[in-house]
Amino acid sequence: MTEGRVLVLQLARLGDQVQTWPLLRRLRHQDPGLVLELLADSRLSNLHPLGPQLHRVWAVDLGGLPLLVERDLAAAYERLRRLAADLRARRYELIYNLNFSRLSLLLASLFGSEVRGYQPLRGGREFLRDPRLALVFAMVHARQVNRVHLSDVFRHLAPAAPGEPRPDAPAARMGEPIIALQLATKHPKRTWPVAAFARLANLLVERLGAWIWLLGTKDEAPQGEILKKELTPAHRERVVNLQGRTDLQELAERLGQSHVLVSGDTGTLHLAAALGTRTVGVFLGPASCFETGPYGEGHYVFQAEPPCHPCTEAGGECPEPFCQTMISPEAVADLVVFLSLRESEARLAPLSTGVRLYRSFFDPLGVSYAPLGAGYRFIDLVGQAYRRAAARLWGVAWPAGQFPPPLGSDDDWLNLERLAAALRNGGGLGAASPALMAALTPLQAFREELHKQRGLGRDEAEAQACLGAVEQGFRAGIEECGAPGWLGAAAR
Amino acid sequence: MRKEKGEIMSYWQKNLDILRQQAPELADMLSGTQVPADHQARPSKKGPPSLKVGRHQVHSAYDPLGEGLQWAQAHDPGAGQPLVVFGLGLGYHVLPLLQEDREIWVVEPSAAVARLALEHQDLSPLLAQGALRLGRNFQGIPRGATLEAHPASRRLNPALYRRLEAYLAGEETTGGHLRILVVGPLYGGSHPIAGYCRRGLARLGHKAELLDFAPFYHGYQVLKTASRDKVAVLKLTQDLLKVLGEVLMARVRDFQPDVVFFLAQAPVDPPLLQQMRSQGPLVVYWFVEDFQVFPYWQNLAPEVDVFFTLQREPFFSELRKLGLKNFACLPLAADPEVYRPLTLSPEEARRFGSGVSFVGAGYRNRREFFQGLMDFDIKIWGSDWDLHTPLKPYIQNQGARVSEEEAVKIFNASRINLNLHSSPYHPGINPEGDYLNPRTFDLAAAGAFQLVDGRRHLPEFFQPEREVATFGDLAEAREKISYFLAHDEERRQVADQGRERCLRDHTYQVRLSEALELVEEICPGRLPRRPRPERPLDLLRREFPEDHPLQALLKTMPPEVEELGQLVDFLKAGEEPLTETEAIFWLLHEFHQGLIRGRF
Q1: Is the pLDDT of residue B533 over 90?
Q2: ipTM score here?
Q3: Which of A63, A248, B124, B182 has the fewest CB atoms within 10 Å distance of its CB?
């Protein structure tokens, strides 16, 4: 036990803030005497009492400061200078900087302590990614194979200690079913249409006699009204529009009473999962449950996976947003009914092509998602192998036999064999399929990132060790997938 | 009684002789001034000539002498007080005010009126004092002097009156702070001018943005070869122009300009101009072309609020025939940040230098004229030259286009820069040539010696033979080339004086200030009189205590850094670790950007 003092710098919004809780929980567990402090957006001050215990929360007025900059620059300067002086005076043993933004780099640099995560160089002019983050950054180059959850990325920045607690598993609730719906997300590309939510609400009232609570902010309230108009008058009476009527505290209470929350990739979803409410994610467009699904065991995600999945939020409107209609309200309703009535999974209707249903579980690295009623594909196994690489890089033990059941398709097998051969021979693929190229892209990006980091002062031996860990871990993963034992079993 | 021609000549000659001693530049200019037909000096009922400009009676048609005396008595501020009279007219109201112990200045807006005054009145007491100023030249007039306006002159030139008033009150410029969107063409001669205009307007303290269509030029060319079917190509090009129009409207919606300032060849058509005007901004078009070569002005001039030209008559008459009154002449200018004296490396001096040079396109008149100069050490630069002529050995780089930077180097490296205005119709010098090309101003700004054909407007801008050397035909050009090649010191002197004049009177900053005054004159009250915001960095200097580390940081900033964003760009470009002050300023900027983006 130390009398150390640690600051976690997380300036992002609700979802990312909640996804930082596993790191905070680990730090608290590792050293109960640790003085653990957080720097966060003042607009989220109601949130922190719901999460792991903190010694102190420093609030940055992200809402007011920009306006103050316009109105009175000198006052804004003084406010930042004072914040910097106060935090410098805390003499932190370590600062975890979790945001890839200039704002947090400059702040972290001003606080004058050692920084882990995104580490500022030359006063915040440059930055160095922690190698743990660098691997995830490399995965972003081929997001379809990324299977590492954001919460675990944050969590593994701190060393592990045995017996670390996990978030509460979703608890069954008694009484009349209450199904909460969070309609909006922060980006239209990842938002399930309000008509689909309306259809879902109709089905749930019809089949479960459920109460439907609509959650969200005041800005989102018009969506709720549109939804209500789509319902029959009788069904409409079962809908309570709480949009804009709850602060974070009340939102948490409402989530605590809900049997199931259905939501896209939103802060509400992450908060619900963290509080032990069962969640059903509706993920489409740029959202991937492997990266930012509800964190914990026993959560479900419907994920639309057209060939362009996952796309990016950047750029204009999607010209053909067909992923928005791929997930059918009937399938979601089936699952919610099943979860509410604890029926057998076998009664779930088959999903439309390109949609997969996942259930979350823990493995040695953290949370991952397993497909229900479908096999693992080549990209799933490549993603799994990268998880193994991440485990090696992050110093997490990975016992043998952690790999999922074998593949179905011949093409996938061929790809796997070619990839294993390429890795044995040193990486050359020649003319390869897009899937194969994607498999090696993160590895290559990681190499390039480390090369760049050497130029910024990363120790050569450390860079070599990191690269070695990732290459070996990935190869071991791919070989374990293609181990003769189950390779034979899958060869019909 | 009508004055005889001989009498007119005698006043004119006497006045001019005195003026030439006091202000040779002004004397030259007035000598070269032509009086438009609507400026009429006619005998009054009582005899002495009266003056009418257009529909405006400048002096009494009955008794101008008595009227002038009365005005002078009413506006006499008493002895010892410096007095500025706005408007000379024919001088009736000014002459009675001339007393030995009084400091008096007269600002006459119009060269034509001044010329008529010199022809019809003995102004020697005024001219001997060196007290006449023309147009926007207020040189020497003491700030704080009492201002009295001759009513007719003020009515004719309200904007200049306001400018003089502001000058005397010690203000830098008149008018409010404007948001101005400058719109250039996809390519061509007016493209760089759009950039100069933006900078000139920004230097005047306005918020000026350039909508640069040049990036679309490549696509436009590709479209032209997209199909062998001409109709299809036409349709495609029209579609592209429609898209560009939408880009423009989107920019207008975003930027919310007070003024949209178009340069010739900008991709707009009458319906778009109508649409834009309906949305509020004042639409100005600067037709920097020869109206006889490019007739498209006929469609555009009626659709804009203000139409600027390079030429006056007979262009003005043509515009009047369309029923228009919304036009004014706005001559070209130079951007001294681009066209400037340079120190060249020996290699550059060799490559770009010669005894005589010419930079420009190979128009017919130039092709013919330059063949008479082939015995000099001459280099010809620019495009559209026919390589199958005797000029071939003198044409540089196979007639490749000359970039702006190269042009500046050539101007600096050449001992004599020829400037022969283009003409597709004449064998040598265009005898009807009036307006000045950009090169006249660019050469002067670069401090380069130029030998230019004697255009009709030239004396208004540069004093011939003092600030630029001129020629009227090939023989004179040859003679002057030989002379100036042999006289380095005289060449340098002319170039220096030309540059001095250009920096004073013919920068884009000066020109656009004139343009905005003309806009105010043509569309009175349309420009918002928004207070000029303090320069953000000045505000910073004032907001922070003197011993604040920020003050030291601000002292290291180059003068062009005016706002927080630029300061941060400057910090970003550095190498050293950021200091606390620097980091906080960068942070403040990030906060501000976050506000603009709506997220962090």
Answers
A1: no
A2: 0.89
A3: A63
